[in-house]
Amino acid sequence: MFFEIDKNALEVLPIALHTVGETLKEDKISRPGGLGFHEIIWIRRGEGIFNVEGESFVLSEGQGVFMRGDVGHEYHGDGFTTGWCTFSFPDEALDYLGVPRVMRFDVPSFLDAETDALHDFAFGDSTILTRSSAVYSYIVDFFSAVLGEKESLSVKISHILDSRYGEPLTLDIIASELGIDKFSLCRAFMREKGTSIMEELKRIRIAKAKRFLRFSSESIENIGKMCGFESASYFAKRFKEISGISPTEYRRNI
Question: Where in the chain is CATH 1.10.10.60?
Answer without folding.
Answer: 151-254
